[in-house]
Known about the structure:
Elements: E1 2-5, E2 12-22, E3 33-45, H1 50-56, H2 65-75, E4 85-91, E5 95-100, E6 105-109
Antiparallel strand pairs: 1-2, 2-3, 3-4, 4-5, 5-6
Amino acid sequence: xxxxxxxxxxxxxxxxxxxxxxxxxxxxxxxxxxxxxxxxxxxxxxxxxxxxxxxxxxxxxxxxxxxxxxxxxxxxxxxxxxxxxxxxxxxxxxxxxxxxxxxxxxxxxxxxxxxxxxxxxxxxxxxx
Length: 128
């Protein structure tokens, strides 16, 4: 299970997921790693909407997205759980460049060595 977060933004989404390393697809660009992403839980921290923020910042509140997906697959014939593929095209100690199946580019920068969750108690909600 890996934790992905977007730090330094107005809110911090923490996603827990299983990431499976799979073979390179033979794309023209050099692929360092190819990942099959299967979401498990999602948390939203530091929302900029004041009342919603009070609810979402509860440390016990998590959306069990994998459980919800399994329920939907069992209940809705046309539903299939999304399992996007991510292609890491560059990685070093401070940055990772990833492309998704639709060739959208995502650049992640390490802003801290800490693996502790961000604390937003001292940051005011600003409504955007």
